[in-house]
Amino acid sequence: MYASPWSCPRAAPVHFSLPQLEESGVASVSRLPLSIRILLESVLRNLDGRRIRDEDALALAAWQPQAPRVAEAVSVLVFPIASMLAIGLSFTLRQIVGPLRHLHRVFRALVANFVLVPLLALGISRLLALDPPLAAGLMLVGTAAGAPFLIKLTKSANADTGLSATLLVLLMPVTVLYMPLVVPLVVADASVSAMSIALPLIATLLLPLAVGLVLDSVVPTLAARLGPIAAKASSVALLVLIASTLVLNAPLFRDLLGTGAITAAVLLTAGGFGVGYLLSGSGFDRRTVMGLGAGQRNIAAALVVASQGFDDPNTLIMVVLFSLIDLMVLFPIAWMLRRRSPRRLPPEARGDAHRASTLPEHLDMGPDLERCNNEHEDSSRHKADTDAATRQ
Q: Which of 36, 51, 58, 341 has its C-alpha lying 20 to 30 A from 88's C-alpha?
């Protein structure tokens, strides 16, 4: 008679125990619906190693309801598409591409995201002596830059979302070329296809951005209506994505406790933010966007590589874990930065200053803008003095 690893040989015939299956750590059987547990019992009783194998029982024991998975799959698509569409509807092509003319800033962004952060990931994995599959997952997120979550993080920090779109436009194409070249050098047995990374990024990020820019240029009235709708859709999709990811992957995350994976994710996120913030130079918007952009890694690209280029599932689990830790660390940072935003003005000061506060810093008018502001303040004080003298 075939002997299953979950059988309890009390007498002939063999007795199969569902609690034994759960105690062995294979699956959480107690959470299964009654109908699935009955079916699982039948499968276990008929295990013979030929028609019904251990893999069949494991697959049934790992059953998950489809609704959260559908919600997760839909939100993964809706969030980046809605985020980039909202940016395209709110800014012009000149506002997004214009900052790229500052070559020294472009150089800093590239060094931060494709040299220093990957080196930081490599150092953390060796410092914590991570298992090879977990270290591979950490290196994947370390080499993948340009994530759509940056838009939402920038908005939470009350910084310039147009500048964050500029950074995405710069980092995403470089990621597509960079990962296939670098990942096989730093991760053993990695198989990476540039096209498999490029197609999802183009479809979910660059294409919606282009559609938004065209609509804003051709039919600005329609773009003005669609912009708030796209922004709200992005927020809802983000909440659904976080909730569904937590529900579906909680058992996997418990398995990583004590492995150093959580510590590594926190260190890489915080360290990436620090690298970008320090290299950005001066200016609230530049520091905020560069810091958040270097800390927030491109999970979509990392997931593509992890699912297609690695056999060990722990590599994929590490990437999913990092996606949650990343947000748990960066959103509080963004909320703290919001308190320092120059756009936070008292209600009585929002009138004349509203136009200046909404002007994107990445246009970088520099001394001219400062001189104009000083002249405006002098003019405002002169007008106030004149009005006071008239009343007297």
A: 341
Taking phi first (over 0 means left), then psi (-120 to 50 degrees means alpha), and beta for anything else, what does residue 318 get?
A: alpha
* 3-class state of residue 340 by DSSP: coil
CA 223, CA 204: separation in Å to the nearest integer?
A: 19
Which position has the token pair 């996606």? 323
Nearest-angstrom CA–CA distance, 69 and 67: 5
Q: Can you tell me the distance from the alpha carbon of 97 to that of 301, in angstroms, rounded to the nearest whole number?
A: 23
Q: Which residue has the higher pLDDT, 108 or 90?
A: 108
The token duo for 100 is 């790229």
For the stretch 3-46, pLDDT in tens is 555 444 444 444 456 666 666 666 666 656 555 666 676 677 67
Tokens at 117, concatenated: 């952060």
What are the tokens at 133?
A: 């599959």
Among candidate residues 266, 288, 271, the one with its CA nearest the CA of residue 336:
288
| Residue 8 host element (H or E) | strand 7-8
pTM over 0.85: no
Question: Are 171 and 100 in contact, with CB atoms under 8 Å apart?
Answer: no
- Give me 306's structure tokens: 């992890």
Q: Which of the given ranges, 92-106, 262-276, 318-332, has the highest pLDDT on average?
A: 262-276
Phi then psi for residue 147, to 5 deg, are -105, 140
Crossing angle of helices 313-338 and 284-295, rounded to 10°? 160
Rg of the chain taking only CA atoms, in angstroms? 26
Gap between the Cα atoms of 86 and 253, Å rounded: 33
β partners of residue 15? 8
Dump pLDDT digits (tens) for 275-315: 999 998 888 999 999 999 999 998 877 877 776 667 677 78
CA dist 74 and 67 (Å) reads 11
Q: Distance (Å, rounded) from C-alpha 118 to C-alpha 265?
A: 13
H or E segment and range at residue 7? strand 7-8
The one-character DSSP state at 310 is: -
Q: Are 361 and 283 in contact (CB under 8 A)?
A: yes
Cα 362 to chain center, whole Å?
A: 23
Q: Both tokens of residue 4?
A: 């299953």
